[in-house]
What does this fold into?
Amino acid sequence: MIPIDIQALKDAIVENGLIPVVLERCGCHHITDRGRYFSAANPDGDNPSAVLVYKDSLMALDFTRNIPTAHRRTPDLFDLATFFLQVDFFQALRLVCQFCGIDPYHDFTGDLPESIQITKMLMNMMKGEGQTQEDQESVKPIPEKILSYYEPCVAQIFLDDGISAEVQEEMQIGYDAYSNRITIPIRDEYGTLVGVKGRWLGASVPDGVAKYCYLEPCAKGRVLYGLYRALPYIRRNTKCYVVESEKAVMQGMSLGIDNMVATGGKTVSSQQIEMLSRLCVDIVLCFDKDVERAELQSIADRFIGRLNVSALIDTKGILADKESPTDHEENFFRMIDQCEVVLRTEYQDANAADLEVV
It folds into this structure.
């Protein structure tokens, strides 16, 4: 999850003239205002014009270094920070916030009048970014002591779904007697507790009762469940499996698949697309049987830059209706072997125009 709105953070950096601050803290020197952009030397270089960062977009060029990025053809200020500081994107984002004196959990939308917030939400929906008002909300840390309100447990209903006792203990599964729900803590990419989801405990769900709900509210459109734990495995395997539910992530962990995250449903927000893109690895969508190929293609088409995106599509009749690929071990590995379909490749944007340099 990215707790802060990246575009809003970019706007704040531009509006407050913080580009040179970030460059300096990254080790750059000979930082000069050139009007449309800032120029600088690399931390270990002596060319005072090796690095350019454009003021309007934070897009960046480094003429003497190969800045790796799968997110777009031309890097931005965050990619430079990732490269110069030798950290992953999410660590770089937090450091940039620190350099700029901005709280990583700052709610930029809260600074806007309600009318503008609604307008932004409607514009995103019109662009097909799949966001709701809930997804627009900011991520807010909550106290760890909240988990002490729930009784730690190994849920039989999860054992029956293929989630081991060890995984349930690691992910701090609990039970809330008041609501009669199994509790699932939701953490951001830094491991900070930001929500608690509850699953109704019982084979059948009473009328008018949701099977899943948030006992502690969470801006789910800004969450990739399990990312904080999965990051080292994603980097090691250069691949990220993306599933719909928290349960599916825990099923994957129980199968030894640790490079897996969940979107919290088949709707993928623009923030989640950004987060997945910034991982700079191959993306494999592993959604439930009832998600059509056209829906998966629509999600894949929203990724930007040099990324391979594929999906596990049941062309062999392996899954039952509405079944998740992770529900049964044998089916999951058969799907990986036989049903991975390429939806877009890293070469898809090869003809995209680079940033003009003047």
